[in-house]
Amino acid sequence: MHPKRPRIDPALEQLIVQFAKENRTWGYDRIVRALKNVGYTVSDQTVGNISKRHNLSPAPERKKTTTWREFIRSHRDLLFATDLFTVEVWATWGFVTYYILLFIQVGIRKVHIAGLTLNTNGAWMTQIVRNSTMTEWGFLTSGQHLIHDRDTKFCSTFQETLKAADVTPITLPQLVRI
Questions:
Q1: How far, in Å, CA of 108 to CA of 125, rounded?
Q2: What angle do CA 21, 23, 26 make, to 5 degrees?
Q3: Rounded distance, CA 134 to CA 127, Å?
Q4: For the segment 72-103, what is each residue's pLDDT rounded down to a tens digit?
């Protein structure tokens, strides 16, 4: 009977798990090479055993799934998010609610106030997105992504106008933690 091999150092095991999670396309051999670059020598079998112990799928399955955090990190330079917020303003006839549509450029956290109205509707939202994608003065350009929530004001014509300008609309799932 062979004695059991001692378990690998917990810090090295954590590094293997980190490499596998942060680099979804890396297989066991690639992780072994990366570890060698930082001074560790392990076998691909060891990487596989540790991956299984931590319920990590092999690279072909791992790379099929992308978390929101990973998506945002890898696309932040091409990523915008949009939302409406309201402001109550005192007028001579009482409080008035203004709706303000803003866009934030995620990579540099630059905010664009795109429009302000007393009454939002599909036509207004579509016109704002048309203005925002215009070549002359728009800030949304081809190849970018725009995240928005499930508010009905982000109507089909809003989305079609984005697609026509080669901006990909991304509707958030029901519940998301960003």
A1: 24
A2: 110
A3: 11
A4: 777 788 899 999 999 999 999 999 999 999 99
Q: Which class for 83: exposed (0-12), middle (13-18), buried (19 or more C-beta within 10 A)? A: middle
Pair of tokens at residue 100: 């303000």
Structure tokens at 65: 């799934």
Is 0.90 surpassed by the pTM of this model? Answer: no
Please report, for residues 19, 20, 125, the alpha-carbon distance to residue 25 in angstroms, rounded to integers and kept in the order given. Answer: 10, 8, 39
Residue 80 corresponds to which tokens in the numbers above?
């915008």
Distance CA 38, CA 125 (A): 52
First to last CA, the chain: 51
Angle (nearest 5°) at CA 123 between 108 and 154: 50
Residue labelled with tokens 């979804």: 24
86: left (phi over 0), alpha (psi -120 to 50) or beta: beta
